Amino acid sequence: MSRLPKALRSVRVRLLVIALLPMLVLLPVLLGGTVWRWSGKVDAILVNKVTGDLTIADQYLARLIENSGERVDAVARSVALQTALEDGAIDAFLEKERDRLGLDFLHVSRDTKWPVIEDALGGNWRSTIDVFDTETLASLSSDLSARAKIPLVPTRGAVPTDRTDETRGMVIHSAAPLILPDGTRVALAGGVLLNRNLGFIDTINALVYRAESLPEGSQGTATLFLDDVRISTNVRLFENVRALGTRVSAEVRAQVLGRGEIWLDRAFVVNDWYISAYEPIFDSFGTPVGMLYVGFLETPFSAAKRNSVITLSLAFLFIALASVPVFLRWAGHIFRPLESMTRTIDRVESGDLSARNAPSDVDGEIVQVARHFDSLLDRLEQRDRELRAWGETLEQRVEERTHELHAAKQRLEQTTERLIISEKLAAVGEITASVAHEINNPVAVIQGNLDLARSNLGDEAQRAEEEFRLIDDQVYRIGVIVSKLLHFARPEDFSGADRKVDPSQVVRDCLVLTRHQIEAAGIVCTVEATSTSKVHISRTELQQVIVNLILNAVQAMPAGGRLRVATKEDEGQIILAVEDTGTGIDPDTLGRIFDPFFTTKQAQGTGLGLSISRQIVSRAGGQITACSTLGAGSRFEVRLPAQENLA
C-alpha cells in the first residue's frame, strides 16, 4: 500500500473509484457482453431463416423434376401416342405434345449412355438433372445450343479459368418406357433447358421471398449454377441486367462442389454481401454438377445491429452523464468530513489545540465520529490546561517543596492513568449496555410473536415444531450474547453458570442449520449420535464449534463427497468426530491450522474459526485434534469430559 502514488492513497480518490467503477467499467462490460450475445443470436436466426428458404427452393425444384417425369410417362402410356405410332405420324405428335407440355425436347431414344434412358428401357420412368454438351443440345434442337451459351463475366474471388463461355446446358432430363407396335421397348425422353430459364428462377424467388417477408431495404435472390457459373438468376449486375455468367467464389465452390456440403453463412454475391445458402445439385451419375442458391441482402440487418449498438451506447452515455454527477455529490458527503478531520489533526499536531471539526447538523456515521473526535479534543485541551496550571504551581514551589513535588507528580500520573482508564471503561460500558438494551427489544418481540404463532396455530404448530424449537434456540443464543454484553457492562449485576447440554442433540440441531450448504454441495451426510451423557459447556458455544467444523468439511469437498458426524462415549469422555472425504491437508499446513489468523481460503476466511473453537473446547476442559490424508479426507475430534466425571 505504501508503494502506491500519493494520489491513489487519497480517501477522495478511493471513494470516487468506488462510486464510478460500476457505472464506467462494470456496466460497459456487461453491456458489451449482452450486445455480443444478442448479435450472435441474430446471426443464428438469419442462418435458420436462409436454411428454411433453401428447403422451399429445393422442394420446388424436386417437384418440378418429378412433374416433368410424370408428364413424359403420361404421354408414353397415352393411347394417342400408340395411334400416332401406328399411323406413322409420331414426329408431328411429339412436336405437338412438346409444345403443349412446355418442354424443350421430346423424342424417342435408345441412347444407353444416360442412366435415365437405361431405367426407362428397364421399364421404370425416371426424371433427374443432367448436363448436355453442345453436340447433344444441337442434336436435340437447332436453337438449344444457342440458348444454352452464356458468356462468362470476370468475378472477384472466383477460381481462375481460361474459358470465355459456358456452352453446356443443364436440363431436367426425364424418360419413360415406351413399347413400339413391333414389341420393341424404347424410351420416350423429354426435358427442359434450365440455362436462361428466368421464369423458373423467378418462381422460386417469389415462393421463398413473399411480400413483406424481409425488412425494408433487403431483397431475396435465387440462382441456379452450372458448375460455378450462374445460368439462371435474379441477382442483378446493374439495375436491369441479370448477373448471368458471373461465378461463385472459390471458397463456396470448394465446399459445395468439391466436398458436396451445404453452405450456410454470409457470402459475397456479385457485388454485395448476402446471407446465403448453397446446396449441390447431382446429375443422374451422382456427380455434383451445379448448385441451387437462395439468399437475402445482409446490409439492412447489419445496419439494424449497428444502429442498435449506437442507440445503446448513446443511452449509456446519457445515463452516465446524468448519474455521475449524482454519484460525485454523494461521495462528496462522505469525503468532506474525512478531509476536515485530516486538517484538524494536522493543526493539533502543529500545536493548535483549539482546532475543531465543527461538523454540520446532518446525521451520519462519519459526522458522529467527527463530533466524538471534537469531544475528545475538548477533553484533551482541558487536560492540557489543567496540566499547565499544575506545572505553573509546581514551578513556584519547586525550591521549597522539591520532594513533595516529586510525590505529587507520581500521584498525578497515577490519577491521570486511572481517570483515562475509568473514562474509557465507562464509555465502553455505556455503549455495551445501550447495544444490549436495543437488542433485547427485538428479541422480546420475536419471542412474543413466536409464542403467539404457536397459540394461534394450535395443533397445526406440531408440523413446524422442529423449526419452532430451532428458532427458540437461536433466540436463546441471542439472549446469551446480550447477557454477556450486560455482564461486561455491569458485571456486579450478572452472574452466569455453565449449562449441561446433550452433544448428540446439539449435533442434530447443527445439521439442520447447515442442511442447505450440505445439500447444495452434493454431499451425502451420515449421523451416528450414540452418546447419552451430557457435558458442561454453553450450548451456543458448542454449536459454534460443530457448525465451524461442518462448514470447513463442506468447503473441503467442492465436488461433493461423504460427511460423517458421530458422537460416542469412551472412558468417561464424550468424543465428537467430524470426518470428510475432501481434498485433505498436507502435513506442513496441518500443524498450523489452529494458529490464529492462519487460513488457506485466501479472502474467504479470517483464520480464526479453528483457533476460537480450540479456546472454547479448552475452557470446557476438553481438547480438539485433527488428522488428515492428502487427497483422501480429514477427521477432527472434540473430546469433552462427560458430566458424571466432573466434580
Task: Write the topology of this structure.
Layout lengths: L5 H4 L1 H66 L2 H9 L2 H12 L3 E5 L5 H7 L4 E7 L1 H7 L3 H5 L1 E2 L13 E2 L2 E11 L5 E9 L4 H11 L11 E7 L2 E5 L16 H9 L4 E7 L2 E11 L5 E10 L1 H51 L15 H32 L5 H56 L7 H25 L10 E2 L1 H11 L1 H6 L2 E7 L5 E2 L2 H17 L5 E10 L2 E8 L6 H4 L18 H11 L3 E7 L3 E9 L6
Helix pairs in contact: 2-8, 2-10, 10-11, 12-13, 14-16, 16-18
Structural description of this entry:
This protein has 647 residues and is of the alpha+beta class. Strands 8-7-11-10-9 form a 5-stranded antiparallel sheet. Strands 13-15-16-18-17 form a 5-stranded mixed sheet. A 4-stranded antiparallel sheet has the order 1-6-5-2. The chain starts with 5 loop residues before the first helix and ends in a 6-residue tail after the last strand. The model has no long low-confidence stretch (mean pLDDT 80). Pfam families: HAMP, HATPase_c, HisKA, sCache_3_3. It catalyses: ATP + protein L-histidine = ADP + protein N-phospho-L-histidine.
